[in-house]
Design brief:
The protein is of the alpha/beta class. It is 41% helix and 14% strand. It has 16 helices and 11 strands. The strands form 3 sheets. It has a 6-stranded parallel β-sheet. Strands 3-2-4 form a 3-stranded antiparallel β-sheet, with helices on one face. A two-stranded parallel ribbon has the order 1-5. Strand 10 (348-357), helix 15 and strand 11 (377-379) form a beta-alpha-beta unit.
Length: 399
């Protein structure tokens, strides 16, 4: 389940009101969506409220201005003191006294949960035990809450919640006033970059490499922990470009973001983001459409840049590459950082506006403007395909 959003404070005396409350008369017996209920309870956003439908047992977000009806129960966020209590209870499960002391010290004062989580990165097995313990505590809390509300579940809570499903539920719970336009469709990226466009600047195929950044299940698969709704459209276009690139026998690189040991290779990412993509998990895999073929290189990276701490630059130099074409996810994070790093390493950068994807149209356009203004030429996949076709029609390969 999701980490607590707010810094938990020590409990202000007395047992939790839900823990001590007398069960209410049963008003509904229904199969409860436990995982959806857990996501709702862990939500700390004041602008987002969830209800449990008494007839179906399903959990859904309230629309803007909508009130909870008599046919539903408003799901309150789990109090921060519950998170603090859970962490203290977990200390009793730790056998190593030195580790228990370190984690106990982390719970003193403000910033407790952040310190607690950061320390757990050094103990991968203990971290997994924490997730299981916390999940069980959240579900137990919800069982007490349901009893207080007079809801009798006809199904037992899961022994271990499906975390990929929880991530999908978090995405479903986010407010969506209107469907986000996909890159290159309703999103008018050409107008956004027009003030800085250099239409006469094109890559030279014989001196170019295509960098496909992080097309992994985490971002591209709808079941991924960080699925991007804009990714499928970008994926479809990139597949066509990759096929043309392979047909032309040009250098093709895939990057894959994963962490072997977050304490060692997590760096600032482990402090900035609540979760990381761990090596060996489904999230870390490239989707089938971007499985490398024989001789194609995969660059494993641990931060936004595909150059930092990797052999990418050396490999590009060895192939005589001077122009890099960048596509993939996320536009404003790994793709843009890689493009900037390529530029400062004296490569010519060509950035695929509709062959990249990120979380929102605003972030997409902002990143494209930034690249066009100071780091490279922003172009569409169709133009890139046209450059390849024109070069080979002339029999030169653009060299």
């Amino acid at each position: 389940m999701s980490d607590e959003q707010d810094d938990p404070a020590p409990p202000a005396g007395g047992p939790d009101e839900i823990q001590s409350a007398t069960p209410a008369p049963t008003r509904a017996r229904v199969a409860v969506d436990w995982e959806g209920l857990a996501v709702a309870a862990e939500n700390q956003r004041t602008d987002l409220r969830h209800v449990l439908e008494l007839a179906s047992g399903q959990v859904r977000p309230l629309e803007a201005g909508e009130e909870c009806s008599e046919a539903a129960v408003l799901v309150p966020p789990r109090p921060p003191r519950e998170g603090w209590r859970t962490m203290h209870l977990f200390l009793d499960q730790i056998e190593d006294p030195a580790v228990r002391e370190k984690l106990g010290a982390a719970l003193v004062g403000r910033g407790a949960f952040r310190r607690f989580k950061d320390l757990l990165l050094a103990y991968p097995e203990l971290r997994q035990q924490w997730f299981a313990f916390k999940d069980a505590e959240v579900l137990a809390y919800l069982a007490r809450w349901l009893a207080r509300e007079g809801v009798a579940p006809s199904n037992e809570p899961p022994a271990r919640p499906d975390r990929s499903r929880l991530s999908a539920a978090v995405r479903r719970s986010a407010p969506a006033p209107a469907p986000a336009p996909l890159p290159g469709e309703a999103l008018d990226w050409r107008a956004a970059v027009a003030p800085w466009d250099r239409p006469g600047t094109v890559f030279r195929p014989r001196r170019a490499a295509l960098l496909v950044v992080d097309m992994q299940r985490a971002f591209v698969d709808p079941a991924g922990s960080a699925f991007l709704p804009a990714a499928p459209a970008a994926c479809e276009r990139l597949v066509a470009l990759v096929a043309a690139w392979r047909a032309a026998h040009l250098p093709l690189f895939f990057t894959r973001h994963a962490h072997l040991e977050p304490r060692q290779d997590g760096g600032a990412l482990s402090r900035f983001w609540r979760t990381l993509i761990l090596e060996g998990t489904r999230d870390a895999e490239l989707v089938d459409a971007f499985r490398p073929q024989t001789g194609e290189r995969v660059v494993l990276k641990h931060t936004y840049s595909a150059f930092a701490g990797t052999p990418l630059e050396q490999a590009l130099r060895g192939l005589g590459v001077e122009d890099v074409v960048v596509g993939g996810v996320m536009t404003d994070l790994c793709c843009e950082t890689t493009a900037r790093e390529a530029f400062v390493r004296d490569f010519n950068v060509f950035f695929l506006a509709d062959g990249t994807a990120t979380a929102t149209p605003e972030l997409q356009l902002g990143s494209l403007r930034s690249v066009a203004h100071g780091f490279g030429r922003v172009l569409g996949v169709d133009e890139a395909l046209g450059v390849l076709a024109a070069a080979w029609a002339q029999g030169s390969g653009g060299g």
